[in-house]
Request: fold
Amino acid sequence: MTGTMIPRRPLRDVLLADRRALVVEDGRVLVLAEDVSWGYGGSGPYRLARAILSYFFSPEFAAEYSHAFKWDVVAATPLFPPSQVLAAATIRDWLAGLHGERQLPRVTHDVRLARYREARALLERFRAAPAGWLFWHGWVDGVGCDRCQLLGPEAACWGRALCHGEYWGCGCAACAARRGSLALAGGAR
Reply:
């Protein structure tokens, strides 16, 4: 396991409002992240998950667990009302699930594969083209970029917690942008 599971800062409630995440600590408001979102699986919720784990734990811990935290907690947090609190207890419960003290509901590889096949059958039936990330998120609930979602089980990263495009790039614009930002941060492989 990468990183430590012991928080480097005390876990606090995170206020989600106005596409920002704020931590209130000792009467001070600390901006945790801007231009984030929640309530679905996508890049905004991923940025929020990574920011929360980096803030409370470490960047290494966040790199390892942000996709799981996104799907288990951030994507499951309702989008409405637009202003709400992600409780410290929720983060604590998720952490307990990592320790094996509590079972968290997860979308398994078999469920993803079944959803993928169902989506493919629907596309063929109506002779439609995939409508991008949101379509595939809704059916497959998978991880990765548009191209990974299109490839489905044929993608090199299918069923893994991290899209291969995050580090190696699959050729799509989104992966190229992420790869460039990782290179600037010194994290590209």
Summary: Strands lie at 14-17, 20-25, 28-34, 84-86. The chain has seven helices and four strands. The CA atoms of residues 54 and 148 lie 26 Å apart. The longest helix spans residues 109-126.
